[in-house]
Design a protein that fits this description.
This protein is an alpha+beta fold and 297 residues long. The chain contains five helices and 17 strands. The protein has a single domain, classed as Carbon-nitrogen hydrolase (Nitrilase/N-carbamoyl-D-aminoacid amidohydrolase, 4-Layer Sandwich). Strands 5-4-3-2-1-17 form a six-stranded mixed sheet. It has a six-stranded mixed sheet with strand order 8-9-10-12-15-16, covered by helices on one side. It has a three-stranded antiparallel sheet with strand order 11-14-13, covered by helices on one side. The model has no long low-confidence stretch (mean pLDDT 95).
């Protein structure tokens, strides 16, 4: 790791999940410890890393998988963070209150302290991805802004989750809060009977939209996906990090458990934004219609 304070090293933890949450947590902790050995500043889990991707169907029993924050899993992660001296961003099925559940990223600093959480704002409801049954969207008002950033080891990190990655508004609003890096813990894959060419188009679209967030906002983007077959979904891994130019600087394979390490040169952000001054040239006076569902005329 370079000595420059402008360099920030990411570790993305890509792996398959099994039925036993304890086994999944152990797998993730092994990768987090490997990230610490690789001198990473921050380790990032995939979406809902403690369980199989249960929202493939609506089943009340799966609410039993949720836990509070702070809770047993976050305590284990806090202990690992403090022992290893790196920060962790982990995706948790959160029980906020009786009957209120969220898909949440909890952020833990290198001292092992929970510094905040982000509750997924965009919740899908599609065949195989019935998340609206389980998750309440994150709050958004003057007292609890939905878009969050956190200062970690010299970088400001923005926390978004999976379905958020298709929305340029989410990336822009998080970048406007000063993020240097946007994180997207993810669970995405192919469903049966999709032709091979459609599968490749879908994965390409998934990467392209996130690379576009990097370009449009002049930030690093990191997406960490799971692998393996769960029910009707083949998760395609391919976790990656894109630079502010949109260039992919690190990428995992499609099917193997893998720790991806990427160095982010934070000093590259300012010259990139000078060269492509998209933030400077925004017409903030002309975007009022973005708050409407649809512009009918």
């Amino acid at each position: 790791m370079p000595d420059s304070p402008d360099h920030f090293r990411l570790g993305l933890c890509q792996h398959a999940c099994v039925d036993d949450p304890a086994a999944n947590i152990a797998t993730a902790i092994d990768q987090i410890q490997a990230a610490a050995d690789a001198k990473c500043d921050l380790a990032v889990t995939q979406e809902l890393f403690t369980t199989r991707y249960f929202p493939q169907r609506e089943d009340e029993q799966f609410f039993e998988l949720a836990e509070p924050i702070p809770g047993p899993t976050t305590q284990q992660l806090c202990d690992v963070a403090s022992q290893c001296g790196l920060a962790i961003a982990a995706s948790i099925f959160e029980q906020r209150a009786l009957g209120v559940y969220h898909n949440t990223t909890v952020v833990i600093d290198q001292a092992g302290t929970i510094v905040g959480r982000y509750r997924k704002m965009h919740i899908p409801d599609d065949p195989g991805f019935y998340e609206k049954y389980y998750f309440t969207p994150g709050d958004h008002d003057a007292n609890a802004p939905g878009w969050r950033t956190f200062d970690l080891v010299g970088a400001r990190v923005g926390t978004l989750i999976c379905w958020d990655q298709w929305y340029p508004e989410a990336a822009r609003l998080t970048a406007l809060r000063g993020a240097h890096i946007l994180l997207y813990p993810t669970a995405i894959g192919w469903i049966p009977d999709d032709p091979a060419e459609v599968c490749e188009e879908q994965r390409d679209a998934w990467q392209t939209i996130q690379r576009s967030h990097a370009i449009a906002n002049g930030v690093y983007v990191a997406a960490v996906n799971r692998v393996g077959v769960e029910g009707d979904i083949t998760f395609y891994g391919s976790s990656f990090v894109a630079a502010p130019s949109g260039k992919v600087i690190a990428q995992a394979g499609e099917s193997d458990a893998q720790l991806i390490v990427a160095d982010c040169d934070l000093a590259a952000i300012d010259p990139q934004r000078r060269a492509w001054p998209f933030l400077r040239d925004r017409r903030v006076d002309a975007y009022r219609d973005l708050t409407r569902r649809y512009v009918d005329g």
